[in-house]
Amino acid sequence: MAIAEQATQGSSDKSWHGIVLQTLKRNEISLIPYVPDRVLTPLIKNLHADPFFTTFATAREEEAVGIVSGAWMGGRRGAVLMQTSGFATLANVLASLAVPYQIPLILFVSERGTLGEFNYGQSLVCRTMRPVLDSLALEHHTITRLDELEFIADRSIKQAVTTQAPVALILSPLLTGGKVFDK
Amino acid sequence: MSSNMNTRNTKVMNRFDVTSRLIGKLKHEEAVIGGIGNTNFDLWAAGHRPQNFYMLGSMGLAFPIALGVALAQPERRVFALEGDGSLLMQLGALSTIAMLKPKNLIMIVMDNGIYQITGAQPTPAADVADIVAIAIGSGLANSAWAADEEDFERLVEEAMSASEPSLIAVRIDDKPGVGTTRRDPVQIRERFMHGLGVREPL
């Protein structure tokens, strides 16, 4: 993490979080509720610093999903940031709100539980994520490469909006550096 | 129905009656989010409006959904109707709202101390917790119990010109909802967006 994070600090447009921020802005996504994650910290910090975005923490991930769903219906676009364990709390709200009401819910999930996980609970939670997404036929992509990030994120956001369907963008440790034992 | 609520000397009202009184006061296409179950059944029964949104699941999210609408349309007043059992599922949302302070958001809690729709089992809060005290403790200073129907209407009028979010708690009886919402989520969402001026019908 230390090396990967040092390389991405400073929010140049070429960092993963710089690309995410610019892609959100270009797609007029301005409402960003989140439940924090260590890996997402530079993105969250830069979103807070940019007045284009309304960025704030919520107590639970499903609360954030409710907020961006209401905002979408009111004509404002949002996206939710969380980590893997937060996604694991969302099956009910995905199945009873986002999917049946056809809301283009945009989720960014920082992936914990794989590629060097040190917490057994996190590794088990991670294994529930894709089966839940697949059980609802919910579009999801795992982003591993910096050179593919903008394409996947930009296209996925546009597809979510035009097809009125949720999308989950999973940010792999291969992209972000992840979180390692010494933190 | 609990002892501590009796000491508040608030009248036990009826959800459909209170909901109808609220709808009767709406003259400016205010949005109304109806929480899961009886709360939105009575909203439906009070007369469908294009600015009503009816939840068919996601228990506890009436206030967060209303918060999203309020943040998207700051010039429109947004009401959320929620049951006490639902609110208990998402108490953290009160602090989120208190932090953001959307002045156009008005939260109404229908408190009967029971999960009426599943067989009237008491909530864990019924005899021990006070919804208004929880709201105030969460940072929502403008929270109050409605003493009776007239007081409810007065509180609604105050909330419509308030400079901060408002929460009104209403002690209600154990009656089920009067109607049943048509469970068509796509049509509910689409008509709501038409009602908010976000989209035009095809």
The average pLDDT score of chain A comes to 93
Question: What is the CA-CA span between the terminal residues of chain B?
Answer: 48 Å
Order of helices and strands of chain B: HHEHEHEHHEEEHEHEH
Strand order of the largest sheet of chain B: 2-1-3-4-8-7
Greatest interface (CB-CB under 8 A), with counts per chain: A-B, 33 and 39 residues
Strand content of chain A: 15-25%
Share of β-strand residues of chain B: 15-25%
Q: Give me the Rg of chain B, rounded.
A: 16 Å
- What strand order characterises the main sheet of chain A? 4-5-7-6
How many beta-strand elements of chain B? 8
Query: What's the oligomerization state?
Result: heterodimer
Number of domains of chain A: 1
Secondary structure layout plus pairing:
The complex is a heterodimer of chains A (183) and B (202).
Chain A: H1 2-8, H2 16-26, E1 29-34, H3 41-49, E2 54-57, H4 61-73, E3 77-78, E4 80-83, H5 84-87, H6 91-98, E5 106-110, H7 120-135, E6 139-143, H8 146-163, E7 167-171, H9 173-176
Parallel strand pairs in A: 1-2, 1-3, 4-5, 5-7, 6-7
Chain B: H1 3-6, H2 15-25, E1 31-34, H3 38-45, E2 52-54, H4 62-72, E3 78-83, H5 84-88, H6 92-100, E4 105-111, E5 114-115, E6 121-122, H7 131-137, E7 143-145, H8 149-160, E8 166-171, H9 185-195
Parallel strand pairs in B: 1-2, 1-3, 3-4, 4-8, 7-8
Antiparallel strand pairs in B: 5-6
Helix pairs in contact in B: 2-3, 2-8
Question: Summary?
Answer:
Chain A is built from nine helices and seven strands, in the order ααβαβαββααβαβαβα. Chain A is of the alpha/beta class and 183 residues long. Chain B is 39% helix and 16% strand.
Written overview of the protein:
- Chain B: One of its GO terms (molecular function) is thiamine pyrophosphate binding.
- Chain B: InterPro entries: Sulfopyruvate_deCO2ase_bsu, THDP-binding, TPP-bd_CS, TPP_dependent_decarboxylase, TPP_enzyme_TPP-bd.
- Chain B: The chain crosses the membrane at residues 53-72.
- Chain B: One of its GO terms (biological process) is small molecule metabolic process.
- The complex is a heterodimer of chains A (183) and B (202).
- By secondary structure, chain A is of the alpha/beta class.
- Chain A has one domain: 3-Layer(aba) Sandwich (Rossmann fold), CATH 3.40.50.970.
- Chain A has helices spanning 2-8, 16-26, 41-49, 61-73, 84-87, 91-98, 120-135, 146-163, 173-176; strands at residues 29-34, 54-57, 77-78, 80-83, 106-110, 139-143, 167-171.
- Chain A has a 4-stranded parallel sheet with strand order 4-5-7-6, sandwiched between helices. In chain A, strands 2-1-3 form a 3-stranded parallel sheet, sandwiched between helices.
- In chain A, helix 2 crosses helix 3 (41-49), helix 2 (16-26) packs parallel to helix 8 and helix 4 packs parallel to helix 6.
- Chain A starts with a helix and ends in a 7-residue tail after the last helix.
- Chain B has 202 residues and is of the alpha/beta class.
- Chain B has a single domain (3-195), classed as 3-Layer(aba) Sandwich (Rossmann fold).
- Chain B contains 9 helices and 8 strands.
- In chain B, the strands form 2 sheets. Chain B has a 6-stranded parallel sheet, sandwiched between helices. In chain B, strands 5-6 form a two-stranded antiparallel sheet.
- Chain B is globular, with a radius of gyration of 16 Å.
- Chain A binds chain B through residues 31, 33, 54, 56-60, 62-76, 78, 92-93, 95-97, 100-103, and chain B through 31, 33, 53, 55-61, 63-73, 76, 90-93, 95-96, 99-100, 185-186, 188-189, 192-193, 196-198.
